[in-house]
Amino acid sequence: MTATLSSQGYDQAAFDELLAGLDEPGWMTDRRRDAFQAFCDTPWPSSKDEEWMRTDIRLFKLDQFAKPADPASSPANPGLLTQGVDLGGHVQSVDGDLVSEELSDSLAAKGVLFGGMQRMIAEHGDKLRPAIERDIVCPKYDRFAMLNAAFWTCGAVLYVPKGVAIEEPLHALSVLGAEKSADLSRTLVVLEDGAEATLLAETASASPDAAGLHCGAIELIVGAGAKLRYVNLQNWNNKVWHFAHQKAVVGKQGQLQWTIGALGAKLAKVNQHVALEGSDAEAQVNGAMFTQGRQHLTYNTHQHHEAPYCRSDLLYKTALQDKSRTVWRGMIKVDKPAQRTDAYQRNDNLMLSEHSRADSIPGLEIEADDVRCTHGSTSGKVDESQIFYAMTRGYTRKEAVRMIVSGFFQQIFDRITIESVREALGEAIGQRVQDLSNQ
Amino acid sequence: MSFHSVGSVDEFPDPSSTLVEVDDRAVALIHAAGHFYAIDDVCTHDGGPLSDGPIDAEAKTIACPRHGAKFDLKSGAALTMPATKPTVAHEVKVEDGQVLVRLSD
């Protein structure tokens, strides 16, 4: 059932080979063909595009990456987010191949679907088709979206029926193992009206220095009165190119808490969109980024208010070391009918070295006339007097810096209600903080 | 750090500016008035690429195509606004018809 690409590149031959190895409904194959045609007809984004102006992908060579021909072995590490958590199920993929999936019997009995995307579409295609055909992430948004829509091989589906509340978190782990392997994955979460669930998703590299490519799409559909907590920890090594389109739509009185941790990748370009479609819907978006070396992470966020009385609250915190660079572009878009919108976005940057750089570009586009929309952005260095004070109390400089960085992220941690996620993120960031005197 | 070959001399006409990749770094290789220069292909003003910018072979400068900041080809120094910080200059030599670049850091 899983496909194996033996030829390099993403040309017609590779596409035909992929289709030959797939077992999926015709409508899905038609979608792939459509996306592949668009992929062939479209150039890569140019640095002249406003969206790509600050993200240099001239050194990215797609043909260097492919799904390895040999099946990879299962990862030894079950992931950072699973420690101390009773999971209701998990999905794991390595190098674009599903390696294991599991769902507890009690959840399956309630009608919950959770598993690898290919199997889910093969077995429950009719049920999932309306959600997929909504094109929450536009398959033709840009060439990366087209690449993913044509060539995706793995990913996870979570479907929670009406009124079903899941207490145990579910876990999805994507691993890149082999040198120059590619992970083209999709995630689809559908919470029907009144449903509740928590999905913890994370990425990891099996080797610290194997180059790789991730080109992904994440689609989250939160029904009326439904409640989704979604955590996405990007923890690739620093040689992985990471491109992703992510979008959530929230129905009437639905609630979404979306937490992003961005620690890895050589270069990441992520579009994270939230659309509040039903009235009185709510979205809280939390982002914690930590960069080092020559990493470059770009996050474009979009809070789209389509209906009245909705609330959105976005907070991104970034700490940068060495010569790393981050770009955050945020937009709050309020449509004309979305009166009584309450929206906020904020990005704080902590520069831990002289040579790091953070670009922070908030934006508002408001068509309604009765709204509260505000934004904020700060960039600054660690306060030397705080370090001095901590050192007079007996801490080493390194301990003092760690405390200050940890304090900087505390506002994000306070908003994360899942203890294991809070601890895992705090631990992962703590390990990355170096002594400022070495900068 | 060792020298990396980025191509043969014939591949870089005089004058020209070319983006080359050295150890995962984007480097602008400039051939001007018989000399080769290599600097990071990054304008320190807004982080955009430099290699498409116009070269002044006599003054040994390259200008950022976006906002016009000029950089010294030899040292990477920022010569005019809006750039205020230098870009990184790398060592270049020609051996056996090959252009070799050694990264500075």
For the CA atoms, what is the radius of gyration of chain B? 13 Å
What low-confidence regions of chain B span 5 or more consecutive residues with pLDDT below 50? none
Low-confidence stretches of chain A at least 5 residues in length (pLDDT < 50)? 1-7
Choose one word for the global shape of chain A. globular
Describe the global form of chain B: globular
Any idea of the CATH topology of chain B?
A: Rieske Iron-sulfur Protein
Kindly give the count of domains of chain B. Answer: 1
The share of residues in extended strands of chain A comes to: 35-45%
Tell me how many strands of chain B there are.
9
User: How many angstroms separate the termini of chain B?
Assistant: 8 Å
Assembly state here? Answer: heterodimer
From N to C, what is the helix and strand string of chain B? EEEEEEEEE
Helix coverage percent of residues of chain B? under 10%
What would you call the structural class of chain B?
A: mainly beta
Major β-sheet of chain B, in short?
6 strands, antiparallel
How many structural units, i.e. domains of chain A? 1
Class from helix and strand fractions of chain A: alpha/beta
E-strand count of chain A:
19
By CATH reckoning, the class of chain B would read Mainly Beta
Keywords (chain B): 2Fe-2S, Dioxygenase, Iron, Iron-sulfur, Metal-binding, Oxidoreductase
GO molecular function, one term (chain B): 2 iron, 2 sulfur cluster binding
InterPro entries (chain B): Rieske_2Fe-2S (IPR017941), Rieske_2Fe-2S_sf (IPR036922)
Domain Rieske (chain B): 3-101
